[in-house]
């Protein structure tokens, strides 16, 4: 019995396999004369054609091959300013001092540059013993027992000596003595012993300084190299007088620092007091089907730091200059506040290619099937005469027919075909809704 069942299953499998190999499916074309369905069918087709040709191919340049740029950038800042240190207690910083870019441009590299606008200077620090900053965490003491020798805290300036001593900042306070770089920094703006307004940074004059940005990009796929100094700008006289202006001179690569900040809606003097971060964005969008003279960048500016952050507002860092005097090593510690300019380059080029054009056209032809899908859905599921349409659209022909029917199907004369066609048209000339 089991053997017979296995034989039946095997025969059935062979039957399905042969049926699959020897059968052929084809779409049946049924013409439905229904104005509403025809209207939606043509409307969807038209929408797809407009999208593919108008947007995907023409507007979005779907006929082009795209390549991304490799970029290199360098900058050169020019301009001088001065600081009047007044009664600042140091022979190194006393009276009027001139600052040029070698003094106030710090941490300059290809992708960014920093312009110092304000500072806290602690001159002539040496390794020794001194009172800790009373503003430092857990430094107030009453007795020596409060200052355990050899301990320190991560917010302090040195290692405790074990003594509780009067503060050199406030005689009414006693603090732990430390061993470290002395005297400790007075982290306060403006610097002590100066009469500068609290709203004006020391190097406010840097707002009139300029920066020349040189940007070179390369599109490896197309072997095209461009830079942001276009042909008519390469004369020395033009480069000396031009200044970037989004309206009158949008291609000039020389920018006034004040203009960059103000283009973001900020005031240079206010921003310079505690510092900020700005982005200089260079966008290259090159159509290599046109002249290379039309391939140049568009400049945009954006503030990058969080204005509303409650912690460490602005932008600053510390650096030290070391020297030796009479056998003792000293340093001048500077806490630099300023504006960091980040250079961001986006580059893309396109050139005609047959492959992306064919891919977009093929995708468009495929999208035309949306019209057929939705109209079939309406006809077979929503139309009043959907059963009539279903009978004419869905039909099985072949296995199960008698030999006479097959002969009739294979040998229909043109007259019989015309009669059937006339009958089908009469059945389909109905209103769907």
From TrEMBL:
Q: Which reaction does it catalyse?
A: Ca(2+)(in) = Ca(2+)(out)
Q: Which GO terms describe its cellular component?
A: plasma membrane; postsynapse
Q: Name one Pfam family in it.
A: P2X_receptor
Keywords of the record: ATP-binding, Cell membrane, Disulfide bond, Glycoprotein, Ion channel, Ion transport, Ligand-gated ion channel, Membrane, Nucleotide-binding, Transmembrane, Transmembrane helix, Transport
Protein name in the entry: Purinergic receptor
Instruction: Give each disulfide bond as a residue pair.
Output: 130-182, 141-164, 147-176, 242-252, 286-295
Q: Which family does it belong to?
A: Belongs to the P2X receptor family.
The protein's location, in the record's own words, is: Cell membrane
Bilayer-crossing regions? 39-58, 361-383
State the annotated membrane topology for this chain. Answer: Multi-pass membrane protein
* Compositionally biased region (Basic and acidic residues): 407-421
GO biological process, alphabetically ordered: calcium ion transmembrane transport; response to ATP
């Amino acid at each position: 019995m089991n053997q017979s069942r296995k034989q039946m299953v095997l025969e059935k499998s062979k039957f399905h396999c042969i049926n699959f190999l020897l059968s052929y499916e084809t779409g049946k074309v049924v013409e439905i004369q229904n104005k509403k369905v025809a209207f939606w069918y043509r409307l969807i087709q038209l929408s797809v054609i407009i999208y593919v040709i108008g947007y995907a191919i023409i507007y979005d340049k779907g006929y082009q091959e795209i390549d991304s740029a490799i970029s290199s950038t360098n900058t050169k800042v020019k301009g001088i300013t001065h600081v009047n240190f007044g009664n600042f207690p140091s022979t190194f910083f006393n009276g009027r001092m001139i600052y040029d870019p070698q003094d106030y441009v710090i941490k300059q590299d290809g992708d960014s540059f920093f312009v110092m606008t304000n500072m806290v200077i602690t001159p002539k620090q040496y390794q020794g013993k001194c009172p800790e900053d009373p503003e430092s965490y857990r430094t107030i003491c009453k007795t020596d027992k409060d200052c355990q020798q050899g301990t320190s805290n991560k917010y302090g300036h040195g290692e405790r000596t074990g003594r509780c001593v009067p503060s050199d900042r406030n005689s009414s306070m006693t603090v732990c003595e430390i061993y470290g770089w002395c005297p400790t920094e007075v982290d306060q703006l403006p610097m002590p012993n100066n009469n500068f307004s609290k709203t004006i940074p020391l190097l406010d004059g840097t707002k009139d300084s300029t920066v020349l940005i040189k940007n070179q990009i390369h599109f490896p796929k197309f072997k095209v190299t461009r830079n942001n100094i276009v042909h008519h700008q390469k004369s020395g006289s033009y480069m000396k007088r031009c200044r970037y202006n989004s309206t009158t001179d949008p291609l000039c690569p020389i920018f006034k620092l004040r203009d960059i900040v103000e283009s973001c809606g900020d005031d240079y003097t206010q921003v310079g007091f505690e510092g900020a971060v700005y982005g200089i964005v260079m966008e290259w969008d090159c159509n290599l089907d046109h002249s290379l003279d039309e391939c140049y960048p568009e400049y945009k500016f954006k503030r990058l730091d969080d204005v509303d952050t409650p912690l460490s507002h602005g932008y600053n860092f510390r650096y030290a200059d070391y020297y030796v005097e009479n056998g003792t090593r000293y340093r001048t510690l500077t806490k630099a506040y300023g504006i960091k300019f980040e250079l961001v380059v986006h580059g893309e080029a396109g050139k005609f290619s047959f492959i992306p054009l064919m891919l977009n056209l093929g995708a468009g032809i495929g999208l035309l099937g949306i019209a057929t899908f939705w109209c079939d859905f309406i006809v077979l599921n929503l139309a009043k005469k959907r059963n009539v349409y279903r009978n004419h659209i869905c039909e099985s022909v072949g296995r199960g027919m008698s030999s006479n029917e097959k002969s009739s199907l294979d040998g229909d004369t043109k007259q019989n075909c015309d009669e059937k066609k006339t009958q089908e048209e009469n059945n389909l000339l109905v209103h769907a809704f």
